[in-house]
Amino acid sequence: LENNIPLNESNSIFVCIDESRCDLMKVLITGPDQTPYQNGCFEFDVFFPANYPFVPPKMTFLTTNSGEVRFNPNLYQDGKVCLSILNTWEGRPEEKWNPYCSLLQLLVSVQALIFVKEPYFNEPGFEKYICTDKGQHLSKSYNQQLNHATLQLAIVEQLRKPPECFKDIILRHFWFKKDSVRQQAQQCLNDAMQNCARGSRNEDRKLLYSSETETLSLKTVATTVEALNFHLNRLEKTRGLCEEDE
């Protein structure tokens, strides 16, 4: 696993093992570029039952803001990860877990099948709308909401209070990606302003999106971007001091 786990500038997977509990593992996946999860740090818990590998591990998604946010049709607010390889979703027999599956295979499946460019179409039945104007409109609106959720929960909150086992990894990640994160935040704010302007022409000045999707206020996005800049500025100062000491 150590020699094969994905590790690159765009997106990576990190694992942390509790030496006192060999049946538990923590996982951190960074969001790929060109997706609404870009630059975010997403946490999972993995539990290995006593009859593993004859049954799949149990995987729980933690980046939910205490059960308030659903980042993907495959990631539930209660932490459930819905994938065939976990036997939490009906799939073809060859997609399901078997004793020859590996942990690496599971983690790469989560990374490749969930953190995608257009997650709206991961919802069963929605794939039929991929080539329609309505589908593209709803997918874009969904992504804009996820862009903000990623900034708020997978970036700002991770900067503010990173989990201890991944603290150094997370701070280094944002140190190296800080310029990209700032550009990402500015784009999110620009999208919010444009949607607000379009809404004002439709006598709906306060909302980013139509009633077909969950609403998000421009003020909320601006507050998130302000918090992001605060934490990035603080990170730059502390990391800069560390480099001077070295």
Can you describe this structure?
The protein has helices spanning about 105-115, 135-160, 165-175, 180-200, 220-245, and strands spanning about 15, 25-30, 40-45, 60. Mean pLDDT is about 85; it is low at about 200-215. It folds into 2 domains: about 5-120, Ubiquitin Conjugating Enzyme; about 125-240, Ubiquitin Conjugating Enzyme (Roll), CATH 3.10.110. The two termini are about 30 Å apart. With about 250 residues, the chain is an alpha+beta fold.
Descriptors:
Ubiquitin Conjugating Enzyme; 246 residues; single chain; 4 strands; 4-stranded antiparallel sheet; alpha+beta; globular; 2 domains; 41% helix
Helices and strands, in N-to-C order? EEEEHHHHH
DSSP strand content: 5-15%
In the sheet with the most strands, the strands line up as 1-2-3-4
CATH architecture of the largest domain: Roll
Q: How much helical structure, as a percent, in the residues? A: 40-55%
Output the CATH class name of the largest domain: Alpha Beta
- Supply the number of helical segments: 5
Low-confidence blocks of residues = 200-214
Overall 3D geometry? globular
Number of domains: 2
Mean model confidence by pLDDT: 87
What's the count of strands? 4
Domain UBC core: 1-155
Pfam families: UQ_con
Protein name: Putative ubiquitin-conjugating enzyme protein 17
Keywords: Transferase, Ubl conjugation pathway
